Amino acid sequence: MTDVENASELTAADPVQQPLPLAFIHGEALIEKPQDLYIPPDALEVILETFEGPLDLLLYLIRKQKFDITALPVADITAQYMEYVEVMKSLKLELAAEYLLMAAILAEIKSRLLLPRRSDEDDDEEDPRAELIRRLREYEAVKVAAQSLDEQPRLERDIFAVKADVADSVSPIRIEPDVSLQELVLAFGHAMKRAAAFEHHTIEREVLSTRERMSQILSMVNSQTYTPLDALFTPEEGRGGVVVSFLAILELVKEQLLLCVQAGPYSRIHVKLGQHEENQ
Amino acid sequence: MKKINKEQLKQLVEAALFVADSPVSKVTLKETVLSDFQVSERALNDVLKTLMLDYQPRGIQLVEVASGYRFQSLDSLSPWLSKMWQESAPRYSRAMLETLALIAYRQPITRGEIEAVRGVAVSSNIVRTLTERNWIKVVGHKEVPGRPALYATTRQFLDYFSLKSLADLPSSDVFEALDDQTQPPATATLDAPSEDDRAIETAEQKREENE
Amino acid sequence: MKKINKEQLKQLVEAALFVADSPVSKVTLKETVLSDFQVSERALNDVLKTLMLDYQPRGIQLVEVASGYRFQSLDSLSPWLSKMWQESAPRYSRAMLETLALIAYRQPITRGEIEAVRGVAVSSNIVRTLTERNWIKVVGHKEVPGRPALYATTRQFLDYFSLKSLADLPSSDVFEALDDQTQPPATATLDAPSEDDRAIETAEQKREENE
Q1: Is there a contact between A101 and B82 if contact means CB atoms under 8 Å apart?
Q2: In this structure, which topology does domain B7-76 adopt according to CATH?
Q3: Is a pLDDT exceeding 70 seen at residue B191?
Q4: Chain C within 8 Å of B9 (Cβ-Cβ)?
Q5: A160: which of B30, B177, C19, C88 fits an S-S bond (Cβ 3.0–4.6 Å)?
Q6: CA angle B44, B50, B54 (to 5 degrees)
Q7: pTM of the complete model beyond 0.80
Q8: Using a CB-CB distance cutoff of 8 angstroms, which residues of chain C are in contact with residue A182?
């Protein structure tokens, strides 16, 4: 039944391909015996990894013998399975519990098949092989699926992600948060209220005095002649007063009420009333 | 919203897909590079289709995967392209592939359920590797004693295997056929569990509890 | 050494330049992807030139840089491509808004003056952020020891808030009534600032400085 041809028909994923019919059982070298059970010595060490567990081993045995899974010949398969387990044992491979569990299941099925059936039980008694057959089929489907998944074009192996560099002018964009005018006004209100609570007088006075000083300055200049800037400061007032005057001048310049001219670097600055004031 | 002509739209979408680090969805395109422009869904689809055709004869291709569109090298060139890297692509063990396949086809699934199908324990290493690669993730816990984690595949998994959706998984027909044929007997056995079945179940439960 | 036809050579070189992480030199091409093939210097130059022409009208271009050849996005697309890396800045803190408000209403104003009103230091970060947003600018220096900068708002600031001039800034009492209605608890605390308020401000400043 099994010959070299059969062995070569195995799919690539099947583990035993090396035609080295050499095995050691109970310390004795075995050559081609039994034929479908040849295990190359190298493979023995990796047998637990080569077969993905007892279901895989069973499937291998079934496929190798070209048995129909649905007509699982329990007796034959059990015998072969046990031989493998014996080989593993003799090699002192640490036998995974799963292999022994399967051995027990096979023995149990075998014994149940051997038991004479009473005719009245025939209807409801399940074929004891059914559950094992179901598991084998399911496992086989997983095996096929894993294989086709492996054949699926895969990144890093069959295809590579492609990337072009960005031009140097590409730079990350930062989206600035939105601010509403209302938020801004409220923030000002809060700040001022708090300031009032802290130092009521200072803030009030300074704000007032700048406005006041603006009016004073406007009254000191005219639109015809230039007034030297330093004439607008009163050093006697001290630093605070000078600051207030300066702020007032800046405010006036900003509002174009005041025109500022300077003949050259470091020369005196002169001011006069702004142009648009005249037009009004 | 400004108008953009077809030629400019094509250039912009093309460049965007090329400079992106990962596949780009149409939604992302609209929210980023195209946010200034008035572009209809149809115009965008047209441009993507045109680009796909443009690159057909070239060394790279525009493809659609789960999380969007990406340019990728022609897979027939991989034997030579792989020479550009010192390290060869990682090979995955059968245990890893079978575990991944089960999660892909049977998600959401617990580790115990994977072990029940495969007949062997699933090593923590495999679960960790698959999680670290962002191929699988925990999507919940099964309401059974021990509340084992339920695993599912991710969008990155689909991207990596060039799939648009789980429906594109290869040989899903194998699983479907399986469901048609064997589900009824399976239920039957569950109705009358034998001693053996109990033994398996206990072993499974133990394994789950040890997780 | 195998022969390779011009079309295949083009595909291979194109894909190689695209999958590489950095510019690829002709030497590297020959030593890696082309190592199996017999390719003359001239054939390689021809292919590179053809590719450059092929991509001329496209969204990405093949360019030669110091260390080799690379594909890069068309320069003119940068304003839109930049959006693929956009991030939203966090909302402005109260400290930021108050500083801006004080500059708007009390300009020109020094940092010291803002601090005097707010009762806390103004972090450099706030000033920098407002300056970078082109909302405030230095319009001069106050002639006091240390010559502190005088800040004022800009035209962009007016544009952003749809104001024709600073005179259009609403007086703060316009919104106060509204504020009293909508945020009663907030106003209450503001009226009588507690230790807590200062603590909040300090925390905000710290956060801003760490930005």
Answers
A1: no
A2: Arc Repressor Mutant, subunit A (1.10.10)
A3: no
A4: no
A5: C19
A6: 145
A7: no
A8: 175, 178
